[in-house]
Amino acid sequence: MEYVSVSSLESGMVLSGDLIAPNGRFILPKGARLTQKNIMSIKIWGVSRVPVAKPPDREGAPDSDILFSSSVMEEAREIILERFSGNPPQWPVMEEIFSVAVMDTASRLSEGDVPLRPEIFNSHFSDIPEGSAEKTDMEALLGAENGLATLPDVYARISDALRSPKSSATHIADLVSKDTALSAIILKLANSAMYGVPGKVDSILRATTLIGGRALSTLALGVSATRLFRGISVKWVNMESFWKHSISVAVIAQILVSRKNPRAIEQLFAAGMLHDIGRLALFRHAPRTMSRLIADASAEKLPLDFMEREVLGFDHGELGGRLLERWNFPLSLSSLIMSHHKERERPKNCASAVLAAADVLASVTDEGGSGSWYAAPLSEETWKAADLPSSVLEMTIRQARRQISEIYNLFQGSD
Fold first, then answer.
1. Which of 83, 119, 321, 325 has the fewest C-beta atoms under 10 angstroms from its C-beta?
2. For 113-138, what is each residue's pLDDT tens digit?
């Protein structure tokens, strides 16, 4: 494999291998054609040399479709257009999201992946049996869930420590260490590409020093709450796909926020992991109702949260936020969960806007799903609140693909 000094890079050069930053983060895939924007990013990441192949003759080759055939690109465009209910993007950042999603889908198609199409998705809901009436009012669901899912004492202590300004890093590390399974997950996360630290993090105290005591507490709370729901089995919902979507939103959210406010990485990661926890409660206590809502939303080409509000009077975000409040989670987390779909239209701050953007990106790049095939577009107000340039979108998705796989496997191995 031939390497070229970063100072000798030119537009049009093609990578002969995946490009990885010194901290272990994925930057660009093998086969990517370098642009001036790519080269600038490579320099920012601190890469000193780059694997490149001799660039092919570019005469007559269209820039955007160079890696994929026209038939693959057209199929990818049709899939993403259908994701947005057949509505083309209406403003510049949504055009960029659409373009990034098309290229990501084309890449998957060229690798032999078969993206989930609406006709296949709908076939899962053709035979939903009748049964006794299910309680679907908010208070009944909260009462039922509160009785079934109780956080162990160690999590209550972590939550208390997070709220106390007097808690030291050593105290928080000691609390997390009391739960062996939780400690194992936290250590794996600390050693993952999410942080990209040199050397091995082999103790919770070291992880606390690396991540920060309060940040680690937030991460621990997010991880712990997901463990309460890992055993749910719903006939009409692919739970592996559900958890992959949750992890995808978490990874994309933390990558996006790291470009603006690195101190919020753990908060956004935890929020991403938990953003659909209310839907899990609905799956557990009202499975037939939810199956019908999924079928109806798909038939009408609507995102599922639209149908939830129309029929139930609330959406899964509101239910999830209320659950976290009952479990005494920090308001900074519960409020993000409670309003993550409303933030598509009326964002309150950068964190809520980033979570909403991550949810849309994870949905349209087919990184798992939580029961909704169709996606709603972001509003201009949401992206403005996120305060990020649209140029980060393509790099974020490429970086996320590697991390999603790594962290998904990490959680799969922790049950």
1. 119
2. 877 676 656 655 555 656 666 888 99
